[in-house]
Specification:
Pfam families: ArsA_ATPase. One of its GO terms (molecular function) is ATP hydrolysis activity. The protein has 19 helices and 10 strands. The protein has about 475 residues and is of the alpha/beta class. The chain has one domain: Rossmann fold (3-Layer(aba) Sandwich), CATH 3.40.50. The chain has an 8-stranded mixed beta sheet with strand order 5-6-4-7-3-8-9-10, with helices on both faces. Strands 1-2 form a two-stranded antiparallel ribbon. The chain is elongated, with a radius of gyration of 33 Å. About 35% of the residues are buried.
Length: about 475
Amino acid sequence: MTQRTDAATKTDPAAKTDTAGSPAPAPALDADALLDDPDIRIVVCCGSGGVGKTTTAAALGVRAAERGRKVVVLTIDPARRLAQSMGIDSLDNIPRRVPGIEGAGTGELHAMMLDMKRTFDEIVEAHADGERARAILENPFYQSLSAGFAGTQEYMAMEKLGQLRARNEWDLIIVDTPPSRSALDFLDAPKRLGSFLDGKFIKLLMAPAKMGGRAGMKFLNVGMSMMTGTLGKLLGGQFLRDVQTFVAAMDTMFGGFRTRADATYRLLQAPGTAFLVVATPERDALREAAYFVERLAAEEMPLAGLVLNRVHGSDAARLSAEQALAAAENLDGVGIVDQTAGKAGLRDPADRSADSPAAVPAPGAAPDTTPDATPDNSEREDSEDREPTPGHVPDTPGTPSVEELTAGLLRLHAERMQVVAREQRTRDRFTALHPEVAVTEVAALPGDVHDLEGLRAVGDRLATGSVPAGAA
């Protein structure tokens, strides 16, 4: 695997070993060094679904632009989150300038979303004359192929990336890939395309056009007779004719498809490309991350590191989960949380001793509901003028006492610390398997990212490798 070990990775030599026997910390990924490196022209964000790839790609784009680079973010994810967070009404196949980018430099940010069919149409229009291009674009089989044929999206992503890089208009291209393992399917696009073009079915369909005349028609009748009996019944003879017409029209373009795909594949292997694997500290997400790391190594793709997203922590990490649970149980055990809410249960002993015995009903006695003929408002006035006792809870039915709230918060803290411990174990397992992978940890935000300020906050965490309190 082509592993980046230059300025994008910060390693502490003293952290190579751990005297306690626990896994040594992974080298730290320096995101700013990666974004500032003028030799890095492409950053590809990959990972399983729901781990924050789109947000990560957008945050990297904003940060790079505000540090002076001219950036375009290409998303293959059809979700509209990227456009919304950047304040753009919608994204399409054309890079759109993102307003509101700040910074002292001359940086710019553009964003776009891959339109698979439009990209395919552009290729046809660019590499075929007007009449042939029109015949291809109007062909029913082409329309089905360009709209959603298996593997077409990944190949078109390769094409669009190659187009953006060839224009040499941007300093940095950031690619947000589709979710799940299909995120790396575009690496297979050239191979699948080659297999498709070299397949016997395609060669059979191309032969009549190449031979031409009666000989071609004779060959077509002989060659197609084996298929029309079965495929004709299943798909219809018109479908087969549409396919044959499409292949004949595309014949001169097939070589260009393969050449461009191979060139983009080599571009992804070049030192100017950096892959970032994005994951959350959950078992399934890190299992997928391990798959991406191993696959990139097998394809000799340059891996910059792992972005560990939405890491949890606590500012009260010194209080362990066990201690918090024990404290909550102690509150339950002494019966404090079972006291009646209100003054009788929470008033200081001195205040309670001053009360008249008649004011406190005997256990089990029915409350006196007889109205007083001469009500005394002095107690009400005194209570209104009296300073509230610290920690006092109003006499509202159903209002939990301070002790009940404390016990509940202790249990919540215990749950949070258990989550922190589980995430740490999951990270340690990944690090043990892939100690060479540089990691930056991004603390979970309190809410969703929906604007540039949110993206800047994510970018800050990406750059500093911020670990939330209690997560280390």
